[in-house]
């Protein structure tokens, strides 16, 4: 009984080890897109995640300078009239709160799944009536159905509110994109309700993070206006004791903040106004520039109230991806040319007869993707040589494969096959 236990123990341990080796990779570790993952796949960013520290610095620098100015003004002001100054502790606290919310919206936008559609490992199944005329230019990759070559249509049609909407086939993700989805060339993913790829947040903007993106740019706009106004009020407050020019010379930091926020508000403020228009008309940036719904009917447009409710008060759908799950997809088997035929149960007679039935010498075609060596190969001679080789076991299988896979020229390969066949015949006779 003791021996039996010792034998079963290693076998059980080996099985557990083999099973654990199959589950050593998670989905985020084998992800085919260009995204970058952190915290064990809990945070997903775009490939340009390095731009986020720059964005953070552009927001934090003027705010910290403004807060520092307010803080020192609180320390230096006349304690006999503390209520007379607009620069006080409430201003400092409110600035810090706005800055905190701005950073929260920034990282909620950049670190979450924007609505990535999982890609398929193979083309979608064939459906009757889907193939188009072979002369059509709107074709994608091929189906092989019952021995017949069929084409996957580039588009499919759906009806949304009595309006026909076409969805495209993605050759990269091997799927028909959902309505309003598009493939991001930077992240290399299809994204639901794709708006655009924002380099400032290092992430695609789509169905699951558009709300936070808008709140980020709106908060940034408010923060610019906030610092701009209070910097001017700080200068104007000094005019009670001196002229405006003298006050401006004394408050150099306020002038720098005024100039900085004035330039910035044109960028983030204009972007905020543009997205308010997009939300009110239920469009995305991609749709606005590509389809121009102003010139035709928008099938997704509702009333303005319902459009805003859809963006800000609807439930954010769950992610279609579980990045921390184990990747159970089988890896493609690599074909090794040095395989040993003797170690496999392959009958050379079956190979030779199958080659005689199916392989016919193709006409040389310079425009074909088939190598010229294979086009000019004498299949009849090669077939007879392989049949001779099948009658003996004295031929080294690796030598046979080196002859068949000879890439130098066809004549050398055929002569080597004939020599091997002659040698095998003489060995059989002996």
From TrEMBL:
**Catalyzed reaction equations:** L-cysteinyl-[protein] + hexadecanoyl-CoA = S-hexadecanoyl-L-cysteinyl-[protein] + CoA
Return the GO cellular component terms, semicolon-separated.
Answer: endoplasmic reticulum; Golgi apparatus; membrane
Its annotated compartments are:
Membrane
Q: What class of enzyme is it?
A: transferase
**Where is the major localization of this protein?**
membrane
- Transmembrane portions of the chain: 52-75, 87-109, 212-232, 252-280
Disordered, as annotated region: 1-21
Regarding the membrane, this protein is recorded as:
Multi-pass membrane protein
User: Which part of the chain is the Palmitoyltransferase DHHC domain?
Assistant: 168-290
Q: Which GO terms describe its molecular function?
A: protein-cysteine S-palmitoyltransferase activity
Fetch the InterPro entries from UniProt: Palmitoyltrfase_DHHC, PFA4/ZDH16/20/ERF2-like
Q: What is its EC number?
A: 2.3.1.225
What Gene Ontology terms for biological process does this UniProt record contain? protein targeting to membrane
Top-level taxon of origin: Eukaryota
| Biased composition regions of type Basic residues, renumbered to the chain | 1-11
> What residue range is the signal peptide?
none
Keywords on this record?
A: Acyltransferase, Membrane, Transferase, Transmembrane, Transmembrane helix
Translocase listed as a keyword: no
Q: Which family does it belong to?
A: Belongs to the DHHC palmitoyltransferase family.
* UniProt note: domains: The DHHC domain is required for palmitoyltransferase activity.
Supply the name of the protein: S-acyltransferase
Origin species, per record, is: Zostera marina (Eelgrass)
Q: What is the organism lineage in this UniProt record?
A: Eukaryota, Viridiplantae, Streptophyta, Embryophyta, Tracheophyta
């Amino acid at each position: 009984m003791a021996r039996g236990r010792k034998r079963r123990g290693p076998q059980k341990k080996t099985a557990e080890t083999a099973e654990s080796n199959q589950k050593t990779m998670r989905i985020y570790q084998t992800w085919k897109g260009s995204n970058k993952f952190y915290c064990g796949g809990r945070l997903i960013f775009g490939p340009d995640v390095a731009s986020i520290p720059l964005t953070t610095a552009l927001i934090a620098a003027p705010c910290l300078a403004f807060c520092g100015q307010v803080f020192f003004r609180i320390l230096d002001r006349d304690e006999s009239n503390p209520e007379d100054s607009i620069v006080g502790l409430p201003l400092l606290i409110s600035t810090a709160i706005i800055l905190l919310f701005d950073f929260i919206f920034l990282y909620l936008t950049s670190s979450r799944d924007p609505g990535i559609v999982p890609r398929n490992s193979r083309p979608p199944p064939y459906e009757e009536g889907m193939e188009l005329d072979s002369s059509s230019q709107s074709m994608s990759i091929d189906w092989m159905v019952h021995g017949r070559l069929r084409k996957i249509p580039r588009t499919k049609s759906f009806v949304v509110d009595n309006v026909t909407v076409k969805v495209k086939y993605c050759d990269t993700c091997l799927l028909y994109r959902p309505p309003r989805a598009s493939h991001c060339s930077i992240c290399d993913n299809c994204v639901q309700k794709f708006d655009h790829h924002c380099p400032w947040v290092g992430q695609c903007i789509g169905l699951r993070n558009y709300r936070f993106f808008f709140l980020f740019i709106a908060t940034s706009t408010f923060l610019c206006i906030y610092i701009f106004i209070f910097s001017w009020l700080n200068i104007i407050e000094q005019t009670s004791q001196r002229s405006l020019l003298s006050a401006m010379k004394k408050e150099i930091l306020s002038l720098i903040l005024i100039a900085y926020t004035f330039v910035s508000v044109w960028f983030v403020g204009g972007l905020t106004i543009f997205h308010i228009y997009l939300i009110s008309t239920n469009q995305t940036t991609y749709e606005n520039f590509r389809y121009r719904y102003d010139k035709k009917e928008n099938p997704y447009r509702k009333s303005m109230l319902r459009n805003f409710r859809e963006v800000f008060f609807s439930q954010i759908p769950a992610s279609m991806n579980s990045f921390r799950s184990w990747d159970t997809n089988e890896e493609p088997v690599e074909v090794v040319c040095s395989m040993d035929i003797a170690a496999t149960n392959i009958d050379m007679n079956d190979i030779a007869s199958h080659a005689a039935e199916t392989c016919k010498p193709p006409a040389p075609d310079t425009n074909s993707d088939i190598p010229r060596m294979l086009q000019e190969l004498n299949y009849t001679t090669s077939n007879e040589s392989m049949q001779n080789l099948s009658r003996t076991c004295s031929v080294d299988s690796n030598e046979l494969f080196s002859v068949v896979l000879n890439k130098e020229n066809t004549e050398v390969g055929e002569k080597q096959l004939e020599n091997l066949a002659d040698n095998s015949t003489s060995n059989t006779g002996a």
